[in-house]
Amino acid sequence: MLKIFERWHERKRIYYYRFILFFSFFGTSSLLIALSKRKETPIIWNKIFRFFNPEIKYSKFRIDGDLSAAILLILILSLIMGVYLYLFERKFIDNCRDMAATSAIIALNLLLIKFLLPIPTYAVPAFVGVILISLLIDVRVSIIFNVILSIVTLLIVGMNNLSFALHLFVTGSLCAIVSHSINNRLQFISHGFLASLISSLFVLSTELVFKMNEAEVLTTSANSFIGTALSFIIAYGTLPVWEYLFDFTTPIRLMELSNPNHPLLKRLLLEAPGTYHHSLIVGNLAEIACEAVGGNYLLARIGAYYHDIGKLKRPFYFKENQIIEEDPHNRITPTLSALIIISHTKDGVEIGKEYRLPRQVLDIIKQHHGTTKVAFFYGKALSQNQQVSEEKFRYDGPIPQSKEAAIVMLADSVEAAVRALSSPTPQMIEATIRNVIQEKLLDGQLNNSDLTFKELEIILENFIKVLTGVFHKRVSYNIFEDSSNKSDEVMVRSENIHSKSAR
Ligand SMILES: [Fe+2]
Ligand SMILES: [Fe+2]
After folding, report:
1. Among 112, 470, 425, 103, which Cα is nearest to 280's?
2. ∠ CA 189-193-196 to the nearest 5 degrees?
3. Are 55 and 136 in contact (CB under 8 A)?
4. Which of 83, 317, 336, 430 has the most crowded CB, counting CB atoms within 10 A?
5. ∠ CA 82-88-93, rounded to 5°
6. Across the chain, what does the average pLDDT equal?
């Protein structure tokens, strides 16, 4: 019963945000078109608009026939957009955060156009919203909003000009497409410059083809360059605000986190070097597998880089960081050992928050062990005839809630399992990886991850390709090191036991 209520509550929230989205588009558009139609402004807006334009006169608000037609047009557009989003963009229309951000971006974009209109029309930064939606949410959603925003912008500007309409539609779509592939700050400049250049050439050609405004062809073309460039500059400048307000993780933010000079990665390298190197391999594995199944591979890589930062609290309790002979676990009970091992996910989230890691990365840290059992210490406790409950030896979870988190979990486990093989052959590596994936599947750890069986097979193939290259070659050198072989084997076996429980 409680679940039904929760679901209804969640649905209600989604309807509420859908209404906000509709209102922000329909309401803002209608209001601004109304203001454009009338030279005078209504009472309630008088003071606000006076601030921007002291020449505005006070008057009562009145709707004329022309305006009603414009509002009807906006209503039809809103409904068409609503139906399209409902049928083809369900992911967007069911995500409250994305709808809230889009509502705010659209409203501010339209206000920006309206208030900057005293500058030449083509130089108005009309594409800020399109760029932001493409960067933060989705390129397809951005393109559909561009179609509708183009028509509304045309109505607000009050221009009956085919060249300008085409400019809004084509340059807007171009901005959405190029913004989608922006991964760092430098690309912001290069992609922005390219889009501005193409935009000015496009306006130049349309003006000449349609002979719209022959006398001012060059000025109009230069203005369109300025307008597009300004759109990129404003989008770039306000991006951190949107990231912060709506908790977005952009590729730009992720690329910053991949820099080895990031203070947290530096700490990991100095204080837990074994974990650092393990995380790098897991990062490569996760990225390749995630790219192959069409997930957010950059997020998977960064999530993997930071997945074990919780080990910074007690690095020497984890085998990969033990440089001294004695294992500290020998001095404590298996229950305490399990507690220390299990707490590295919770500690990781705390440390991640301190360093302001994005929420999606924190989710991966929290979910990378799901609710799996720390089998080694559970077995050790049982062998010592202790009365222990299995629950105390399981990670807190939750199980991975996204493709990326599940792939990091699998990459983490297969890397540890393959590394623990004493003399791996390609067949052994494949069998081990298959085994690990099967175990996680049977244990229900992948139930909420959206991964299909087909995708699991693709992930498996990619893991085999990478790990065979890394571990098979390394073993061929060891064949000739007969004197150290035995001690190596002992170390690897002991790591196997620990890694199964701790990584
Ligand atoms: Fe790990
Ligand atoms: Fe871990």
Report:
1. 470
2. 140
3. no
4. 317
5. 55
6. 84
Rounded alpha-carbon distances, angstroms, from residue 478 to 274, 416, 482: 20, 19, 8
Burial of 270 (0-12, 13-18, 19+ CB in 10 A): exposed
Measured in angstroms, how far is the CA atom of residue 316 from the centroid of ligand 1?
14
Q: Is the per-residue pLDDT at 215 higher than 50?
A: yes
Provide the token pair at 459. Answer: 């992930």
The runs of H, that is alpha helices, within 38-61 are 43-52
Would you call 41 helix, strand, or coil by DSSP? strand
Element (H, E) at 207: helix 185-210
Q: Which helix (H) or strand (E) is 488 found in, with range?
A: helix 482-502
204 vs 2, more confident: 204
Percent of the chain with pLDDT over 70: 84
**Cα dihedral across residues 375, 381, 383, 386: positive or negative:** negative
Structure tokens at 120: 């030449």
Q: Where are the alpha helices (DSSP H) in 272-424?
A: 273-292, 297-306, 334-354, 359-367, 375-383, 403-419
| Whole-number Å distance between alpha carbons of 55 and 230 | 26
Tell which CATH classification among 3.40.190, 2.40.50, 1.10.3210, 3.30.70 matches the domain 252-502: 1.10.3210
Token digits for 177?
Answer: 């497409």
Q: How far is the CA of 419 from the centre of ligand 2 (A)?
A: 15
Quick one: which of 182, 165, 151, 171 has its CA closest to 81? 151
Q: At what angle do helices 334-354 and 375-383 cross, to 10 degrees?
A: 160
pTM of the model: 0.73
| Ligand 2 centre distance from Cα of residue 369 (Å) | 6
Contacts of 117 (CB under 8 A, 6+ apart): 124, 156, 157
Domain boundaries, the chain: 2-248, 252-502
Position 494 confidence tier, pLDDT thresholds 50, 70, 90: very low
Residue 364 burial (C-beta neighbours within 10 Å; 0-12, 13-18, 19+): buried
Q: Is 57 helix (H, G, I), strand (E, B) or coil?
A: coil
pLDDT of 228-270, one tens digit each? 999 999 999 999 899 888 888 888 889 889 999 999 999 999 9
* Tokens linked to 134: 């493409």
493 vs 454: CA distance, rounded Å = 33
Distance 436 CA to ligand 2 centre (A): 15
CA of 311 to the centre of ligand 1 (A): 9
Tokens of 148: 């509708």
What's the pLDDT tens digit per position in 163-196?
888 999 999 999 999 999 888 888 999 999 999 9
The answer to whether residues 156 and 33 touch, using CB atoms and an 8 Å cutoff, is yes
Distance 409 CA to ligand 2 centre (A): 9
Residue keyed to tokens 């393959």: 418
For the chain, the first-to-last Cα distance in angstroms comes to: 38
